[in-house]
Protein: Propionate--CoA ligase
Amino acid sequence: MNYQDFYQASIQDPASFWDQQAQLISWHKPYSQVLDHSKPPFAKWFVGGETNLCYNAIDRWLETQSDKAALIAISTETNAEKTYSFAELHAEVQRMAAIMLDLGVKKGDRVLIYMPMIAEAAFAMLACARIGAVHSVVFGGFASKSLATRIDDAKPVLVVSADAGMRGGKAVPYKPLLDEAIQLADHKPAKVLLVNRGLDAMMVADRDVDYAALREQHMHAQVPVTWLESNEMSYVLYTSGTTGKPKGVQRDVGGYAVALASSMKNIFCGNPGETYFATSDIGWVVGHSYIVYGPLIAGMATIMYEGTPIRPDAGVWWSIVEKYKVSRMFSAPTAVRVLKKHPVELMKKYDLSSLKALYLAGEPLDETTSNWIATELGVPIIDNYWQTETGWPILSVARGVEHKDTRLGSPGIAMYGYNVTIINEATGAVCGPNEKGVVAIKGPLPPGCMQTIYGDDARFVQTYWSNFAHDQLYSTFDWGIRDEDGYFFILGRTDDVINVAGHRLGTREIEESISSHPQISEVAVVGIEDKLKGQVAVAFAIIKNPERAASPELAKALEAEVMAVVDKQLGAVARPARVYFVAMLPKTRSGKLLRRSIQAVCEGRDAGDLTTIEDPQSLQQIKNALGQ
Ligand code: ATP
Ligand code: MG
Structure:
């Protein structure tokens, strides 16, 4: 089919379009109305219909492929590997669901899941879905303060956790952090269900219960699916917090199931019986959509991986692709950059012939990284742009519909259902081709996108829908352009803009330019206050050969070279006032550059909310470079 027609149909008549897509999932009760958009910007999809995410992910496949692999849990930390068939997954999820019911969890109650990448985490998510409880997964790498704010916002009746996660060969205790978080929080969950991985954590009487013991009591549990109206809540997930306090994204049931089934078919091209491998974490939206729900809804086996990309060596992911004949893989540019630093032979020694495509998302995919992985892997690299808020790609190519080319540096064209436009921030007018503006989406958002901010409709409207004169526009808070052919380019976040003597420059554009210098492997650019110019750009770069900046003279010479590149490509106005060379850059735990913290440190301010930072040492490096 022609993608242009497919796309136009989705925009011109969303109700008929999504009515068709909705046939990809199983409904317990048919919906009476495809779309209710009578109270914009709120959109209700498949009104009156009843379905269940867990049913679509597991039960639906029991008849045709109950013995086929459903969940493959691999830990290179504990050297454990276990495959659960659809039938086995069905049994485990019912055990978990029975335990939750025993612990008093009722339909609509929130259950907070704070767990490492172990199979039980997926059981817990699916069990919540099965009984109509609302899960809120909190990334296992977060410490007590981040956890406490989420506990207070989601107010869970139950927390499912584990004594420890493992990272880089070390056990990372979770339980003490959880205890501390509950102490810090105003809301007190009634129960904590704990998976013991061998650390035998201290148990709090009357609150903490052991998973293995309760599982024993429920070996033969049969827990029927609780049918939910399509617009009831499935989960709350907090955004990454790259630009500030995380927002609690609330999602529905029916629209989400349809969006996932549809994207698995049209964008990820996955078929029942194949294996999908997303290297993300269940704490992020990719983990929700494309580790747990999406692949299973598509009847695929999904891989849950605990470990790093480079242990025991940088070939580990490719060994998994070979062993489980992975057909579709999903990762992030930051992970590819890590792999790029290791010998490519580690990838080459595996038979990767099962792999059809590698999807990358989460942050801008620079051309160097994209070209490298495309060449070495020999499969299409498909960039895709989306947000926690949307739940599935806004921009990509939908090869399941038509084979469209990708374009270097572009995450693709507008995906069906998303009426994407570029808006001039100052005038509110729609930008022409190649004119820079804010990436916005005309409502209604398609199925699968956020319903609201949990518990705060007013903040939802205020935050996302009130940025332009036209109140039917959802702001992504990202800058972008669209070329003549409909390919978009993301130029950074709207709060990452520098104003140099009246010129508005995206930090991302300057970073792209600096990255084209052969010595630079990674760079962050921020705008800092300047008495004369308002703001100036300052760059922090990681270089490939540290020898090149081993002395102040060498560093100065390299800095001049980098500045010359920017001068030539973007003009002197974009030239950074300083280029500092560092060994590490501050990132969130999801791998995104924390420019706001770098900026704060440069301006001598407090670094702000650092609860999502990967390694605090990275910020110290910035301070050292600045001589602070
Ligand atoms: P917060 O909203 O709390 O500040 P966040 O925006 O980092 O955090 P996510 O929802 O995890 O939280 O990330 C979505 C953002 O990631 C997008 O708005 C965009 O800035 C960036 N992004 C995602 N995919 C891509 C991509 N393919 N290319 C460029 N940027 C991307
Ligand atoms: Mg965001």
Remarks:
- The radius of gyration is 24 Å.
- The CA atoms of residues 204 and 452 lie 35 Å apart.
- The chain is about 30% helix and 25% strand.
- The mean pLDDT is 94.
